[in-house]
Structures are given as C-alpha cells and as structure tokens.
Amino acid sequence: MSVHELARSIGSSRLITDPAVMDSYRRDEAHLAEPGHPAAVMLAETAADISEALKWATAHRVPVVTRGAGTGLAGGGTAVEGCLVISTTRMRSILEVNPDDQLAVVEAGVINADISRAADEYGLMYAPDPSSFEISTIGGNIATNAGGLRCVKYGVTRDSVLGLEVVLADGRIVRTGRRTVKGVAGYDLTSLLVGSEGTLGVVTSATLKLQPKPKRAPVTVVGSFDSLRSAADAVAAVVRGGIGPSLLELIDRATLRAVDDWKRIGLEDNTAAMLIAQADGVDADAAAAAMQKHFEQAGADFVAVSQDAAEAAQLLEIRRLAYPASERLGQCLVEDVGVPRSKLPDMLESIDRAAAEHSVKIMTVAHAGDGNVHPTFVFDRTADGSVPEAVWTAADEVFRRALELGGTLTGEHGVGVLKRRWLSLELGEDSMQLHRSIKAAFDPLGILNPGKGF
C-alpha cells in the first residue's frame, strides 16, 4: 500500500500523514470510543477527490472513515487502525437556494446553521436543528439522521433530505432522490443512506427541503415541576391534546443545577424538572394557552408565557448548554433512547431508578415532545482508565427498559461504536441479516466505516 500513490492522484496538499496533525482527526465527541491510528487523512474538496480516494482504498483494501466536524456522540466518526480518514469540512459551498421550489443544494461540509442563514433571505429555513447546529456539518447530520429541538413539529433530517450525491466504495458517483415534491421511482435509496453512518457510501452533497419561516415569533411557555413524573405527565397531556408545539423540551434537576453552577443564571434549586415549549403557527397564542393549562393541571408550581424573543433565546440556551455543563463534571456517556410519547413518564422513572440502584449520576434532558430522552451518565474513570462497571450496568438497564416500552436505542445519535452490543436486541437476527446483505451490496469488501453501526 502506498499513500504516495494517492497523494499523486489527488495532490499532496490534500493529504496529511504527520501523526501529530492526524491526531485531531482520530475521534469524535464519543470519548469512550478508543480511536485507532489512521494511515492518512484526506482533506477532500470535491466529489472527484473522494472518488479517487475510494478507488485507491478499494484497490488496497484500506478501511475508510468519513468525518465532518466530529460532533458525533456515538463514535461513528472514530478512526480505525490503518484507515484513511476522509474529512469533508472543506466542501462547504451552498450550491443553490431555490425559493420557488423551496429547496437548497449544499455540499457535505456546510454547517447546519449556515443553511438557514442562506435561506432566510427568501423567508425560508432549514428545519432540523441539533444542539450542535452552529458547528455540525450537514454530512454528519445526514450520517446520523440528526434531530434537534424543532423535530417535534418539523421532523428529523431524513424528512428534509430530497436527494443525495454519494460516492460508493468502489469510487462510483451516484445520485439518489429528486427535486420534486413526490417521487416513487425505484427503491428509496435516499432514505436508506440517511442514518447509515458512513457504512454504505460517502455523502458529498445533498438536496434539502426548506420550510417557510413562521410569519410571527414563537410564543414560549416555561414551567417548573417538583417531580419528573409530573413534568412527563404534562408532556403526555400536550401530545394527547393534539396541540402540535414546535418545540417541547425537558430538563431535569441535575442538569439545571450543573448549568446554574456554571453560568449563575439564578435557577430555583427546588425545581425537579423544567419544560420549555414553543408554538409558532397562526394559532400560537391559543396553543400556548392550552399548554399552560396542561402544565398547571399536571402540577406545575410555576408557569410563564412569553412572546419576548430575548427571553426565549435565554431559555433555549439553558437547554443547549446541557451537554457542555455535564462535561464539566466528569467523563460522560451521552445516550439517546426513544420511547412512545405515552411511555415517557415510565422511561424517566426507570432512568431515575437505575441511577439510584447503581449509585450512578445520570443527568437527563429530552426532546420530550417526540419521546427522545438523553440520559447522560457522568463518572470518573477507574484507575486503569476504564469505565466503571456500574455505569455499563445502569446503561444496560436503561436500554433494555426503552426496548421493553416499545422504544429504540437511538433517536438521533446513531449506533456508532457505543451501542453495537445492544443493536440485535432491537432489530432481531432476521433484520440484522438483511442489514448485512444491504451492506454487502453497497460495500462488498467492507471497507466503509468498519465496526460501526450495523
């Protein structure tokens, strides 16, 4: 195998082989996933670059790991030993914003928030907004089928991807999907590739659905509760009432305390849970009033409704600070289970029970409106650097309980490395075999992101 051969093909300025420089490309935000040492890192600038790299990798049977900004939380962007890492962060052109068809065409390295900024000129927005929206790339969002705070109304990434340009393992460049509102010709390869975590191909650009921006600023409702159960009951009542919030987030006491200790924002210490909700439609006032009523009936000890944009931004910043606040307290295992929304109270109680039984600190936030819960396990590593067994035991109980409630191991972070051991529990062996067959059709040599996802 000669990396110099690849350098001659794509240009040496796009290839990094210095181990010290490559070190920053070895891992994503899943710090518990142990990275390997890449043979080289390619800074791709075009789909043609990636095509040449994959032809070379196929010829030499070199594993390939593709990465964007490295914000993933499941280890999907972790390097494997001797691999070629392909970074798409130089592919950051917004190729088209089409207001007539309400779509945008962007390269894989474009930052999520920049898409909405470009669309804003036309009164449009790109709806999916993961907490990392200011730093994560659309290619990474597509790889994990990322969600975000607005997904309760507007859906996850898959719901906003119309088509893709993808480089296959052997270097062929294919285009999937369409620019039309409807289209059913052939299998839905676009939806298959979204969420495939780089195991089926390398996404180089995407055609994205844009949404009209709401005509008015959202109305925000915030409520504090003296128990997680009552907050979850309020969520269930909002869903049952068919209100359709544009955002419905839950933050538990441990997370609120961590944010307050860090930012000194004056939160009440006796609050067990906070709900932050928004409504952005023409009926936003009526929806906010209905949510206020449901919060109060579920036992909220404080509820406020605001149309002030600055107040809303401050509240949402508390939610977005949840993960960095937990990181300040120790090592973190950030998890991502989803349950039917009616089962949210049971799921939250199960997380609390696992924390108490195993003496593990768990800080929980949730995209509560769609039942997607993020329990973050905070701990100190053992003397030999490993994760305490109690943490894995508690996590195992949380995952199994989510499945018992009819849920899923991951709502938006992906399987990556960290959740592979539980995947067959959710999918079953027959489904796992189908996944392996699909993988073999796209990547017969198994060089694309080996050891990840499926």
Automatic annotation (TrEMBL):
Listed A to Z, the keywords are: FAD, Flavoprotein, Oxidoreductase
Cofactor(s) named in the record: FAD
**GO molecular function terms listed in the Swiss-Prot or TrEMBL record:** FAD binding; oxidoreductase activity
Pfam families per the record? FAD-oxidase_C, FAD_binding_4
Q: Which PROSITE patterns match?
A: FAD_PCMH
Has the keyword Oxidoreductase been applied to this entry?
A: yes
Domain of life where this protein originates = Bacteria
For whether the record's keyword set contains NAD, the answer is no
Q: Which Gene3D superfamilies match?
A: 3.30.465.10, 3.30.70.2740, Vanillyl-alcohol Oxidase, Chain A, domain 4 (1.10.45.10)
- Domain FAD-binding PCMH-type span(s) in chain numbering: 34-213
State the family named in the UniProt similarity comment for this chain.
Belongs to the FAD-binding oxidoreductase/transferase type 4 family.
The protein here is known as: Putative FAD-linked oxidase
Q: Which organism is it from?
A: Rhodococcus erythropolis (strain PR4 / NBRC 100887)
**Taxonomy-wise, where does this protein's organism fall, top ranks first?**
Bacteria, Bacillati, Actinomycetota, Actinomycetes, Mycobacteriales
